[in-house]
Amino acid sequence: MKIESDYQKVWASCLEIIKDNLGKENENQFKTWFEPIVPVELRDSILTIQVPSQFFYEWLETNFMELLKRTIREILGPQGMLKYSILVDTSIVGKPVTVRIPSTGGGQNTQNAPRDVPFPTGVGSSRVPINPFALPGIKKVKVYSQLRDTYSLDNFVEGECNRLARSAGFAVAERPGTTAYNPLLLHGGVGLGKTHLANAIGLKTKEFHPEKTVLYVTSEQFMQQYAEAGRNNTINDFVHYYEMIDVLIVDDIQFWAHKAAKTQEAFFHIFNHLHQRNNQIIITSDKSPSELVGLEPRLISRLKWGLSADLQAPDVETRIAILKQKLHNDGIEMPYDVIEYIAYSINTNVRELEGALVSLMAQSSLNRKQITLDLAKQMIDKFVKNSERDITIDYIQKIVCDYFSLPVDSIQSRTRKREIVQARQLAMYFAKKLTKSSLATIGMQCGNKDHATVLHACKTVANLAETDKTFRYYVEEIEKRFKD
């Protein structure tokens, strides 16, 4: 490709490649980690990009270094390099300031002199009239946190689907209000662990900082309290109460959409007060700030100040770990093949996964039947019969390996045994046919292969299905299992 002198066009070309490699199933990762990046300059085949924080830079280097390195070299050639310009957090507001920011090379350390970069204005500059209830000398009342002890970090299973959110949450618990993650917005679909994680962060904060006042409240509860305060003419007391909180957790803020205008206004002023005093704000929602329709624009802008961390549907390894954790907590033993079958069959969210497990244990207890794979299959078929099963690469690998009586992890191995190579090729073939995943994603999940290997596997399977009757029978029988 011809190298563009315009650094913005170069970065736009990089983004196209990165987005294709991540695939549609990782669209949230692309939005979280690559859309906020701003290209700064291009000089001597070195592209400088600006990232929001040190944590952001470290996450890119840890999780996407190889992808970035390959992409930069594809666009800029073998000499292409990537440098970072990292914005630092500052409490100075109200006027432009200059901060000195070191830059580092993508994938390696480079000794470059720090660059002077103007800090953006307007962040944190809102002013709220002094509340007489918040003047020094007013004694804090004891606040019941409303946190649930069962929702702790110890029983929150970490996986690729929630690693960012959990890591950021732990950092917030260690240093509430002093990190760049204020507010911390946890967003994701139903049953993915937002409430659990928000509670866990609150509990861990109290463990690290017993002197701090932590409060968990649902958006509905907050709205009802505000309405009651309005009826009783105690709005000032209501606002003062929330302005005393050191760590405020508001759950499911999306319920304020298209209603509760006065509640949103009250929260807006409370938010500003807490943020200016470096008190921590944690919010959960079913959508990212840019997708929250129906909330006040100025409130949405505040939600974008910190970190938006999404929780995605757990992958099969995480689902297995969640089931094991729940069984361990309940003191119950269950055959691994049953756990694995449930994990591969229920791939929507954690709540349905645990619901399937509870249903199976109830069937076993009430009917006095031993928990076996056959019983699990009967129960799961009833559990999911009214919902369309989402076919994933993990599920495809499981079906193919079960058909050939191979362990699932054999597809990830480097062995060149004929039967395993054949199973791997079939898994790639069906993944391309039955999912929307990119070739790069399929290859990565099938033994860390590249997209060219996936294409070759698909052509090989198609050719053998036409020329070899036995192989065609394999393909047809496996395909039937996806339709059952």
Radius of gyration: 26 Å
Q: What form results from the Cα inertia axes?
A: globular
Number of strands: 10
Strand order of the biggest β-sheet: 7-8-9-6-10
Quaternary:
single chain
Mind describing the biggest β-sheet?
A: 5 strands, parallel
Along the chain, the helix and strand elements come as HHEEHHEEEHEHEHHEHEHEHHHHHHHHH
The CATH architecture category of the largest domain equals: 3-Layer(aba) Sandwich
Structural class: alpha/beta
What fraction of the residues are assigned to beta strands by DSSP? 5-15%
pLDDT below 50 for ≥5 consecutive residues: which ranges?
88-140
CATH superfamily annotation of the largest domain? P-loop containing nucleotide triphosphate hydrolases
Distance between the termini: 47 Å
Mean pLDDT: 79
What is CATH's topology name of the largest domain?
A: Rossmann fold
Helix content: 40-55%
Quickly name the level 1 CATH class of the largest domain.
Answer: Alpha Beta
Query: How many domains, in number, for the residues?
Result: 4
- So how many helices? 19
